[in-house]
Structure formats: structure tokens, C-alpha cells
Amino acid sequence: MADTIECSTHGRCLTTYVCRHLPGESAGLGFNRDEPTDEDPYPDAWCDDCEIIREGAGGWNEESEKLVKLRVLCSGCYERAHIRHTKTDVTLEDLSDLRWKCRTCEEWHTGPALDFGYDEPEYWGPEHAAADRKAKLLPKFLRKKPKTFLTKDFCAIDGEYFFVRGLIHLPIIGTGETFRWGVWGSLSRENFEKLLAMDEDPKRTELPAMFSWLSTRIPEYPDTLNLKMHAYIQPLGDRQHFLLQPSDHPLAQGYHHGISAERVKEIMMNRLRKE
Question: Taking the model in full, what pTM does it have?
Fold first, then answer.
């Protein structure tokens, strides 16, 4: 049985080995390895500088192994390092001259736009907005707990369907940056009420991950409704993070394997032309 390691981020995972330059927050250093196989899905990996040492010594031998120091990573961190350090033909720096107008602040910005979001879940309609407005017009002493409401972070519909707002982070290949979709995910009544009650409690981060169905349609992908994910509760002031379960869906593929800077530009051009 392959060796495993406990990771604070990814839990119990396979043990992998990389050169000392690849862990951490560095990016774009190159990611060299032998071709993965079924028997060895995570072969040892090293950066471009260590590749120069390996080539100069004529391959892996006693001389090169003295100079290249290895670090242990879990397989989840290994995959993230692979995304950060893989070099691409188009980089985020190539998008630095793009100018675009933000629909929120109405100001012009330069560089890549890495955040796009939705103000309500897919299932929120005009009739729900009307019920929400009506409830808010009542004097406070007459207000009961509304069955239908929408805030910047929480939504309930008819006292039966419950949603929380959060972020899906897509790592951008060759960088330490992420592209962020601000979306909504469903929660069970129990988890929704628990999270709502602790909305201003610093201890909310102690809550376990909560199962969720993606409740936002993102038109840049095939239908995204009801993709399986989990909401990971973040510190006060931060939106929850959604972890997509692995699948063949392009959004899940982007979450687990990263997206290119070219794809970021494609989304930007599509979105900003419409806005």
C-alpha cells in the first residue's frame, strides 16, 4: 500500500516528493517529472532550476541528488503545485493592458478581471423579491421571521429552500492567483439555520463542511445547476468557499486542474462586452 500523509487542507492523501522550491506560494518555476502511471500517479517533481542541475550532472545520480533537496507534499498539494508552476504561452502579465469598466463602482480598471458574481440564486424570482420587499416594509415590532428573504449572503424561499453565497476558486495555471465565481449553493434547513445563527460568531469556522448543490447557472459552461459541492466556512468578513466534487463537468475540471490565462481573457471579453 502506498504511503499516506495527513494534510490540514486535503485530509489523508498519498505522499509525494518535490524539490524544495515548488511548495509554498511561489509560482511559474516550471514543473518537471516523469510521465505519471497507474502505479506512480505522482512521480517526483522538480523546478526548472533543479532541472538544470540534473542535466548538468547527466541525470539523477549521487552528485545531482546531493544538490536537489526534496520536500514531502500530500497529493492534493502536489496537484496545486503542478497548476501553479506549469508554464503557459499566455500569462496574466499578457492581460495587464486590458481596460474594462466595473459595473459595481462604474470605474475603469486595467489588468485582468478575476471576480464575477451573482446577487441571487437561480431560483429567486420577481414574486420572491416582492415578498421580501413587503416584509421589510413592516414595522420591526410586527415582523416575524420571514419565510422568503434575500441578503447579501443568505437566501430563503417559502421557508423550504435555503441558500448561501460563496466563492468557487479556479486556480490559474502558472500563477498563484485564482479566478473567482461568486455563486450560490443550497443548504439543508439544519445547516442554514446553524450558519445563520453563527454569522457574526468567530467560532463559525469550527463548523464542518456543509453539503451543497450549486444553485447558479454560469453561461460560460454547460448547465451548472446542481453540481455537487461542499461549503467550507470561512472567518468573519470572508465569503464561504465552495469545493466542487470531482466530475467530468468543465467547471469541476477547472476547479481541480486549473484554467489558463487565455480562458480568463475569454471570460473577461464575453462578460465585459455584455456589461
Answer: 0.85
